[in-house]
Amino acid sequence: MRFLVRKRRSPPAVIIVALIDVLVVLLIFLMVTTTFKQQPTLKLALPESSSAQKSGAEEHPPLVVNIDADGNFRYGQKNLPVTLDQLRGQLQAEAAKDPDVKLAIRADKKAPWFRIVNVMDAAKDAKIKNLSAFTKDAAKPGN
Q: Is 48 helix (H, G, I), strand (E, B) or coil?
């Protein structure tokens, strides 16, 4: 006869600290490797252009003025609604800080043309010489 006392085995324990460490490392890896595309908050249907250029990472991104289909102005990265007089003041202030400032107009294709001309006049009054417009590539339908 064998009188051997067997030790009871405890069930395997999951080490939570190690799992949290692994999850934090994965989270940091995903945050570092993810590229964030800046999506405009204002939905505009841009006009098509056969000579549309891809916008790349520029050293000094342009100031952006959005004009929606109703002719309302929105200025800057935060798309703050502004009046034409406020826009003129903002453009003059930016041109005073940097004489080589760039301005980009992003207008809906149904936006009233006189609103685009208003922005161009405000840029001329502020002595901004580099003016461009956002368009979409005519070769790619559905952009």
A: strand
